[in-house]
Amino acid sequence: MSATHAPSTDNWPQVEATSREILGQDICRFIDECRGGAEPESQLIAVLHRVQGKFGYLAPAHQDAVAQLLQVPAAKVAGVASFYHFFRLEPRGKFIINVCMGTACYVKGADRVAQKLIDELGITWGETSNDGVFSLEQARCLGTCGLAPVLMIGEQIHGQVTPDQVPAILESYLKKSRSEA
Ligand code: FES
Hints:
The chain has 8 helices and 4 strands, in the order αααααβααβββα. It is of the alpha+beta class.
């Protein structure tokens, strides 16, 4: 396979303009630099990292725009995006709740805290609440075992959390989210 492909659509200017609009100037500048190199396809992962860094995940429209501008087959972009676990194909919540399931937290009841979060949010691991505010993830030791069981929400650590405290903790972030809206 050749390193670059000629645009295959007869409405290329329109496709290019739309793709550039979807990804924004900064990403497009990087893609243009990559296309100037010998092996643009080898930069695909780096491009996808930048796209995810900007948008938080790789939507089908992002992937298609990358395929068009980097001139890599769309199936290849979709394959790479779904193969690597560090790429996300779904939007993430405004606040990521990391529940520490390390040993110190587990023996102090992290599973009960986790179950309360699952019940309150109506989602499970890796999912995002319908209002887009929370995503729920498991973490290994967060390095604050003395505070077990521990949640990290955004950058904030919550220690010695009990299931009964979960609704109030969630409410404080909902308030924050509403005040920032
Ligand atoms: S095991 Fe949870 S912070 Fe260490």
